[in-house]
Amino acid sequence: MNDEEKLDSIIDVSKLSCEEMVRALISGPPNNLENGKDYLLIDKNNTKIELKAEEWNEYKYGIYLIGKNIEVTCATSKEGFGHLRIRCSHLLLANDTCVIHCNGLGFRSMKGPGHGKLGTGAGYGSQGANKQGGKIYGDETLLKEIHFGSGGGVPMVGTGGGSGGGIIELVIAQHLVNNGIIQCNGLDGNDYPTGGGSGGGSGGSVLIKFVSTKNDKKHILGQIQCLGGNQSTSWREGGLGRIAIYGYDFEAKDLEKIVPFPYHKSFIIN
Q1: pTM of the entire structure?
Q2: How far apart are CA 202 and CA 74, in angstroms?
Q3: Are the C-beta atoms of 30 and 12 separated by less than 8 Å?
Q4: How far is C-alpha 186 from the geometric centre of its chain's CA atoms?
Q5: Which of 14, 90, 109, 249 could form a disulfide with 151 if both were Cys (CB 3.0 to 4.6 A apart)?
Q6: Alpha-carbon distance 61 to 162, whole Å?
Q7: What is the pLDDT of residues 52-74, one digit of tens each?
Q8: Is 78 exposed, middle or buried (0-12, 13-18, 19+ CB in 10 A)?
Q9: pLDDT digits (tens, 9 = 90+) for 197-225
Q10: How far does CA 31 lie from the centroid of its chain?
Q11: Which domain of life is it from (predicted)?
């Protein structure tokens, strides 16, 4: 029996829920398992974790955010893009102060295929507000192509359209419990002292795949968002992003806290 098989015989991730995994890891994790490498368990309050961008962040024994005010995001490219990719057995956001996000990590002001014009909001999954609002683009399934949100528009005299949302991809083998929030929102554009301002960025993309073929655990999707910036100013509001979920047969009530309404299929996509 090799080392990996020995570890699997100690903690069988296929049989345990998120809560049971937390108890097992806190009470006495196997000596060979390392927090931050094999699993990620954050119980310290007011913690920000920045994971790798673009590459897969792999946690075979899961991610567990159990403290208060925990923020998980990713590093950004020199252009400011943030694309967070996580592959794990379990994902637990234990309370409403835990967040995984790539807010504002898409295209900058006046950039991107759906950028706003003349102070209007950017588009992506829906059009930005106003006739000059940014256009819809991309594919609702998020399989053929996945996009960043676009930047908000700037008036003829002005600066600072809101940046679009980034991208989050989650591949979960066993169990998701989201009592916090997962989001790729666009940011607000600048307000001007004389009134008005720049447009909000459009929301980004969240793609979630459940990949276990034998799983009786009840997933809690919770709150997932890809909102545009400037939600409170209708003429500058950025469009919604896109969300897609695969591999689980949800009930309508499971999707109530997800905006925009996700594209979803029960079959598994590897």
Answers
A1: 0.94
A2: 19
A3: no
A4: 12
A5: 109
A6: 37
A7: 999 999 999 999 999 999 999 99
A8: exposed
A9: 999 999 999 999 999 877 788 999 999 99
A10: 32
A11: Eukaryota
